[in-house]
Amino acid sequence: MNYLKIGKKWLTMIELQDINNETSDEQKKAKNSFEKLYAAIKKLRSEQGCPWDKNQTPLSMRSDLIEETFEAVDAITQNDVFHTKEELGDVFLNALMISYMYEQEKYFNVSDVFDEVVEKIVRRHPHVWENSEGKENANEKKATTSEEVLLQWENIKQGIEGRKKNSILNEISEGLPPLMLAYKMQKKAAKKGFDWQDIESVWKKVEEELNELHEATKEKNQQNIEEEMGDVFFSVVNLARKLKVDPSVALARSNEKFKKRFSYVEKQCEKNAIPMNNENLKQMDNFWEESKNY
After folding, report:
1. Which pTM value belongs to this model?
2. If you ran DSSP here, which 8-state letter would residue 171 be given?
3. CATH second-level architecture of 170-245?
């Protein structure tokens, strides 16, 4: 047993306790609100609760968690503060509901989830907490920039947390949506210097992959077409990364834009008694162009 680490952990917890002792009104409100949400979830999962909620499992809730997360991201992207508040609440609800399911099965408690993330925060921020056990794997020089902090995190992950793997790409969850997975893999590789030196090279790569896809379509080999299409997506993700754009966020915005404009086309066709079919494509295109003004 490493008593030095335990001692440092307790010192850190004492520091956090000192902060907690200076409880503000907002902290009290947050604590009360959390307790109400926790109580509501327990009620939903109780014998007297909701049949639907009682039937859910962590596995069945996965898609809900993903969906609510993306809805929160969309609200943030749209700078819709009202809906951001609502959607973040849904994210908390799903995360806490799943945590409570594990508590019911006695795998771990909801409090364990929060304790662990607090310990991780302190451990990975030795430049903030003096008694952080992460200091053992931090640079001697105190991290003062975002780049230095990211490098420090990697050292702590591989050192004290023992997360070093055969490949840095193995550190990324394979459960991520493919677009997000490609983005994160490219960022990891770039940290090791495996990256395009200039953006013009990336533009050329996108053009190259598009040409290869075009050639594959002539051969009419579906497997090759799928592979080349994947390469196009991957190269475009690289371009997004070099332009400092999160591809998932960018695509979400385009999806919302398409939804808004197509809805306008639907309404105008209904208003003018125009059936939506190929024969009226020109008129629908005109409505589409009009939608850009709204």
Report:
1. 0.62
2. G
3. Orthogonal Bundle (1.10)
